[in-house]
User: What shape does this take?
Amino acid sequence: MNPIQNLNKTFDNRIRLGIMSVLMVNVSINFNDLKELLQITDGNLASHIKGLEESGYLQVQKGFIGRKTNTTYTATKVGENEFKQHLAALEKMINATK
Amino acid sequence: MSNNLQNQTDQLQHIRQMMEQSSRFISLSGLSGIAAGTCALAGAYFASGVINRGAGSSLKELDNHIYNGNLNIRDYMGNSLFLIALFTLMAAFVLSAIFTWLRSKKTNTLIWGSASKRLLINVCIPMVAGGIYILKLIEHGSFGLIAPGCLIFYGLALVNGSKYTLGEVRFLGYGQIILGVINLWYTGYGLYFWAAGFGVLHIVYGAIMWSKYERQ
Assistant: This one.
């Protein structure tokens, strides 16, 4: 069996991989903290978040702190499982080449 | 194939880095530990001067107010030992905050993000509870239990906070707890235990952390 087929194409991108990694260890995170962590522009981050949302990997909650909008993101069960499978596939491939 | 392997190792490294950076506050500088320890030793030195000069403990001055049943904030502010403790705490906090701020500039990480807030909250829970407990000890005149109380609660705060910062902080916490517990059997020597815990342990920890992570 070809192990590459278990690798998830969605996570091929460094930024999407980063977003999911952060969401695996945080219950939720807001846009600005995420931007600061990944050190990318608003537009770039927004487009990758949209991609992950459309795949059903993360959920968006829009809220307010005072009058400012505060949008937070949470990983969905599907997203968590896909990420874990991706990790397992990575591990398998690295072990196979040893 | 080896190119592929490199790519996968990179991915794993990136995952690990993102997980750590988002959940742990890692800009805590070793120099902060050294600075806090130095402040503690200076504070202990001044406190021992006051205790030796004042024929017995100046904390005992508070005793009179306790028996009169009116211990209030003014009594604390007029007590030289209490003022030394307060000043030591402030100096240690400001100095260690400065070194950590400098380090966060260097490593280009956020000093006031979700990671540092989480660390602060988790350190403060045992600290605030301990602080209230110690104020009650003073009210009851149990001065010998103040130093062990400080060490034990501070140690618990560090152990609790270590999940949200550099893992080595846990061992600093263990050290403080052990010193505090031993101190319970040697209550007359509180200041020495206090100086060993807040002074020497902080400096040793800070020096180890500095040489491990920051020395170039």
